[in-house]
């Protein structure tokens, strides 16, 4: 193989990408996502951890209290973000549906030390962001009431949990686990998937447009051509992933070990690209190749996620600086698998190139 | 051959062809991959997801305590004696000494603390669940009831906060609302055994259960709960519907996109075009198998999750919309990579248009602009009225039909096989729709046809800016709405000027501008009165559709806008298009802002 030939092909593909301005759509997409970013951040974090939305609200909420007196009133008194109003049930529900108050609790006259359970009825507004927030707040109140009731009924219990004393948590909820444990690995993975889809387009296009003949008639061999395309796609992976990490850094999210993360991303990306290239070489037709590859991608992704110390997990660990030297071993293993796949792709491409020569 | 029979011929041919190209080679491998997928899913289920393993370091001096934390993979556990732990405390995110928890004063330390607290709560609940006296372990049970309350635009309109905040005065309800409420019984109606079963189930529940619960209709929050089970209802939960319904449909539409593209690659479709079959029959015939397939897929998913089949009704316009866009993208892309990027971009736009309004389902009438909201309503068992169906699907039907029409009239040799860049191809498509003999009539119709797209884009901005505080959201909305309208109006003039530069004389420009202005106004009127009356009544509506109040003023405005853009084109050539567009938008926004402030003051 001739390195210069590979370079020529890679340059051709880069020129093609930039002249079509298709990359512009990728940039547009990122801007578009950024427009929704605050929306997405709140939304995605909330999906990941529903209780995080509580931190978005600094207002005080009114809660209607109906039914019998109970120690629950004292629990509410401890909160400065919830105000309790005593009212009768009908008024309370009317006020709730008029959004005068955020929730209604109905407490039965069961004494705390009764034989049976205390069943509180909680009324909320359906499917509403506000009631999600109030739900989280009320959960805290009710959990603390539950603890109190358990103490009252402690003599009826046979086993006791080990006690742990937690410090008073200062500061609100954080995005930490969502950002480092989910967002960063996915953002790093995304360019790899895009590049893998790109190599299928590049290879199948030569076949379907029958431009292959022209390319092969030059001194460039078939294998060199394939590797030139692979090189183009492979270079895009660390560049895009690096851009994401840089953007995160600008947003105040510090990511550790960037070099090592990009190394993992590049090797993993190359693995996916080679896999896609082999699929494309086999089918030489975009629809089938993309279909088979996207199915295979799901299989590979699920499998990798189920293995401890998988590359995505290592990226998480590296980002929060808890990786340890073991990640070099895994990197070597992934690189080994990638080299094997690269060898297979080369052999396959050579075979196709030779049979093509014989035909002519 | 009659139209119907030629459509049928093409459809059968398309099916055979895609079956033979896909079938022989792909299906065996796809079946193999499916088996692998099932195996891998089994493996993943037993092994668990190892994405966040070891992000926190925790040091513990007591093996008993360590047993609480051990099952959580997020913690890397270090057992050591107390003094050693204390000495190295900065190497850990959390240390536990003699039952006292110390967390590092960093963001990570706090996050670790939160995770530890949840693990501990889970442990305490597990201990409580083992109690022989259930109501000592779980003394408190909660019965969740939901009350429906819909915000109307009036609340938002007057700019007041639509949230139930507490203030000094005691809240009072407006009299005569809602039906009578019966106080809940104080005794528990469920047997103790049932509660134990419920607790056991809740313990083993997968984190994804809240999302599967949405689909099965009966959520896990039905019935009685213990406090730790309270989980906030999330409006974002509707996103699962996008994954379940929209993505498979989008994925299938890709095959149609590819089939259209394949006709163009290497002029493969030449033979087809040379037959006497009309291009409309070819397009419809090619799309028909995919339409059927998508309908079958949607139906299968609906049956699988046990939902009523009526939810297919709002999906039909979505299917048509995807197919229409697939047709245009497949006809316009120059290469496969362009096809990939454009279709990814389009799918993101379409998904957001479908998804974001559903967040406001049950709370706000704006949610009705997305057909997905109808699905949410249907799954909740509330259903939708025929009028609501028209509201939310009219734009999808209209845009799909127009795009299909555009694709059909351009399904010709010189358009399909040209090698021009994307934007000029699209401009060609549009100028292809402009009749040479009656350019003004064509411009009139074209302007009227852009209206559904303008509305869609404006709805998108409405959803986008809805969350921003009041004065800013109005300004942003005004400016973006003006820009979208000016852009839509200029398309026709621009396309003509590109193809026939000589056409653009001052006289023709004035006639063209009048035709476009009239067409725009007529289209706006027609669609508005047909569909969106609800939204137009609000202040947001009056920003978007301000031009409807007095007739001659907006007509003049529309004509002026086109004249400005056209004037720039006339004097400066095609490079002056963008400045012209900006100038027209500025004039348009100023007019709107003037009227808006005048109307409000």
Overall number of strands of chain A: 4
Taking pLDDT < 50 over at least 5 consecutive residues as the criterion, the unreliable ranges of chain B are 152-169, 173-178, 204-210, 217-222
- Coarse morphology of chain B: elongated
Oligomer: heterodimer
How many domains comprise the coordinates of chain B?
3
- Alpha-beta classification of chain A: alpha/beta
Strand order of the largest sheet of chain A: 2-1-3-4
Distance between the termini of chain B: 65 Å
Lateral arrangement of strands in the main beta sheet of chain B: 2-1-3-4
Mean pLDDT of chain A: 81
**What's the gyration radius of chain B in Å?**
30 Å
Q: What's the helix-strand series of chain A?
A: HHHEHEHEEHHHHHHHH
Largest sheet of chain B, in brief, is: 4 strands, mixed
Principal-axis shape of chain A:
elongated
Radius of gyration of chain A: 30 Å
Relative strand content of chain A: 5-15%
Region (Disordered) (chain B): 158-183
Organism (chain B): Methanoculleus thermophilus
Keywords (chain B): Membrane, Transmembrane, Transmembrane helix
Protein name (chain B): PrsW family intramembrane metalloprotease
Tell me what you see in this structure.
The complex is a heterodimer of chains A (360) and B (601). The mean pLDDT of chain A is 81. Chain A has 13 helices and four strands. Chain A is elongated and about 90 Å long. The two termini of chain A are 21 Å apart. Chain A is an alpha/beta fold. Chain A has two domains: 3-44 and 171-359, no CATH class; 52-155, abc type-2 transporter like domain (abc type-2 transporter like fold), CATH 3.40.1710. Chain B has three domains: 56-137, no CATH class; 233-433, no CATH class; 438-600. Chain B has helices at 3-47, 63-69, 82-87, 107-129, 134-137, 153-157, 192-204, 209-216, 239-264, 270-274, 279-304, 312-332, 336-355, 371-379, 386-409, 413-416, 422-432, 439-465, 470-499, 506-530, 533-536, 539-544, 552-572, 577-600; strands at 56-60, 75-79, 94-97, 100-103, 140-147, 224-225. The longest helix of chain B is centred in the N-terminal third of the chain and has 45 residues, at 3-47. The relative contact order of chain B is 0.06. Mean pLDDT of chain B is 77; it is low at 152-169, 173-178, 204-210 and 217-222. The chains are: A alpha/beta (360), B mainly alpha (601). At the A-B interface, α1, α2, α3, β1 and β2 of A face α1, α2, β4, α4 and α5 of B. β4 (118-125) of chain A pairs parallel with β5 (140-147) of chain B.
């Amino acid at each position: 193989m001739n390195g210069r030939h590979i370079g020529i092909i890679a340059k051709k593909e880069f020129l093609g990408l930039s002249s079509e301005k298709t990359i512009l759509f990728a940039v547009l997409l990122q801007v578009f996502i950024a427009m929704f970013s605050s929306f997405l951040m709140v939304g995605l974090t909330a999906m990941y951890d529903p209780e995080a939305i509580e931190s978005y609200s600094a207002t005080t909420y009114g809660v209607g209290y109906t039914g019998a007196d109970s120690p629950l009133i004292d629990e509410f008194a401890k909160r400065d973000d919830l105000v309790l109003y005593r009212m009768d049930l009908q008024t309370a529900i009317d006020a709730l549906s008029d959004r005068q108050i955020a929730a209604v609790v109905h407490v039965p006259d069961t004494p705390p030390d009764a034989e049976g359970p205390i069943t509180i009825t909680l009324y909320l507004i359906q499917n509403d962001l506000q009631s999600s927030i109030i739900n989280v707040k009320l959960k805290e109140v009710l959990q603390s009431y539950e603890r109190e009731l358990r103490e009252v009924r402690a003599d009826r219990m046979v086993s006791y949990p080990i006690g742990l004393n937690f410090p008073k948590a200062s500061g609100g909820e954080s995005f930490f686990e969502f950002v480092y444990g989910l967002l960063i690995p996915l953002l790093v993975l995304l360019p790899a998937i895009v590049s893998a889809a790109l190599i299928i387009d590049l290879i199948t296009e030569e076949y379907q447009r029958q431009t292959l003949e022209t390319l092969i008639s030059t001194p460039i061999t078939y294998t060199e051509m394939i590797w030139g395309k692979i090189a183009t796609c492979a270079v895009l992976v660390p560049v895009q992933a690096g851009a994401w990490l840089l953007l995160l850094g600008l947003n105040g999210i510090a990511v550790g070990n960037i070099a090592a993360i990009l190394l993992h991303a590049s090797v993993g990306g190359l693995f996916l690209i080679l896999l896609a290239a082999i699929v494309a070489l086999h089918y030489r037709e975009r629809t089938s190749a993309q279909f088979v590859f996207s199915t295979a991608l799901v299989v590979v992704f699920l499998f990798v996620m189920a293995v401890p110390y998988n590359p995505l997990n290592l990226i998480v660990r590296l980002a929060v600086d808890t990786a340890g030297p073991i990640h070099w071993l895994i990197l070597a293993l992934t690189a080994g698998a990638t080299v094997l796949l690269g060898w297979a792709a080369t052999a396959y491409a050579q075979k196709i190139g030779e049979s093509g020569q014989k035909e002519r | 051959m009659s139209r119907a029979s030629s459509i049928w011929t093409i459809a059968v041919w398309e099916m055979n062809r895609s079956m033979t190209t896909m079938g022989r080679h792909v299906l065996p491998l796809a079946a193999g991959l499916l088996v692998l997928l099932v195996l891998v899913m089994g493996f993943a289920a037993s092994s668990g997801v190892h994405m966040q393993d070891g992000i926190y370091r925790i040091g513990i001096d007591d093996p008993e305590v360590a047993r609480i934390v051990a099952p959580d993979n997020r913690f890397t556990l270090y057992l050591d004696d107390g003094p050693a732990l204390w000495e190295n405390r900065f190497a850990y995110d959390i240390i536990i000494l003699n039952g006292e928890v110390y967390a590092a004063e960093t963001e990570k330390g706090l996050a670790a603390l939160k995770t530890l607290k949840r693990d501990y709560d889970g442990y305490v609940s597990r201990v409580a669940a083992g109690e022989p006296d259930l109501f000592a372990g779980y003394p408190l049970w909660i019965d969740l009831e939901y009350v429906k309350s819909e915000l109307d635009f009036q609340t938002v309109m007057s700019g007041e906060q639509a949230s139930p905040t507490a203030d000094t005065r005691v809240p009072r309800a407006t009299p005569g609302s809602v039906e009578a409420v019966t106080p809940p019984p104080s005794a528990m109606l469920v047997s103790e055994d049932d509660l134990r079963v419920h607790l056991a189930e809740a313990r083993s529940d997968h984190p994804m259960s809240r999302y599967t619960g949405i689909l099965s209709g009966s959520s896990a929050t039905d019935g009685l709960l213990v406090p730790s089970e309270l989980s906030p209802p999330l409006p974002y939960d509707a996103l699962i519907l996008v994954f379940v319904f929209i993505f498979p449909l989008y994925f299938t539409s890709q095959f149609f996109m590819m089939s259209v593209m394949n006709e163009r690659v290497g002029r493969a479709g030449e033979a087809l075009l040379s037959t006497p079959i009309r291009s409309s029959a070819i397009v419809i015939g090619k799309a028909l198998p995919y339409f059927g397939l998508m309908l079958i897929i949607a139906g299968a998913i609906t049956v699988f999750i046990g939902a009523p089949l009526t939810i297919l009704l709002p999906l039909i316009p979505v299917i048509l919309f995807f197919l229409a866009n697939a047709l245009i993208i497949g006809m316009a892309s120059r290469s496969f990579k362009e096809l990939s990027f454009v279709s990814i971009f389009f799918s993101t736009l379409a998904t957001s248009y479908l998804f974001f309004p559903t967040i406001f389902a049950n709370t706000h009438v704006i949610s009705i602009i997305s057909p997905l909201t109808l699905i949410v309503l249907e799954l909740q068992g509330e259903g939708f009225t025929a009028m609501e169906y028209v509201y939310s699907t009219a734009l999808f039907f209209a845009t799909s039909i127009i795009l299909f029409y555009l694709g059909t009239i351009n399904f010709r040799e010189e358009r399909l096989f040209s090698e021009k860049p994307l934007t000029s191809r699209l401009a060609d498509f549009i100028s292809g729709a402009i009749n040479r003999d009656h350019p003004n009539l064509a411009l009139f119709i074209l302007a009227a046809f852009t209206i559904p797209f303008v509305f869609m884009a404006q709805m998108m901005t409405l959803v986008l800016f809805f969350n921003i505080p009041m004065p800013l959201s109005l300004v942003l909305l005004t400016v973006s709405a003006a820009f979208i309208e000016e852009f839509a109006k200029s398309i026709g003039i621009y396309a003509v000027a590109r193809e026939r530069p000589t056409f653009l004389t001052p006289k023709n420009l004035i006639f063209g501008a009048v035709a476009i202005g009239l067409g725009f106004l007529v289209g706006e009127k027609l669609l508005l009165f047909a569909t969106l009356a609800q939204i137009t009544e609000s202040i947001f509506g009056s920003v978007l559709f301000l031009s409807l109040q007095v007739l001659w003023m907006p007509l003049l405005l529309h004509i002026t806008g086109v004249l400005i853009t056209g004037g720039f084109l006339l004097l400066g050539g095609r490079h002056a298009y963008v400045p012209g567009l900006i100038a027209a938008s500025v004039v348009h926004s100023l007019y709107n802002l003037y009227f808006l402030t005048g109307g409000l003051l």
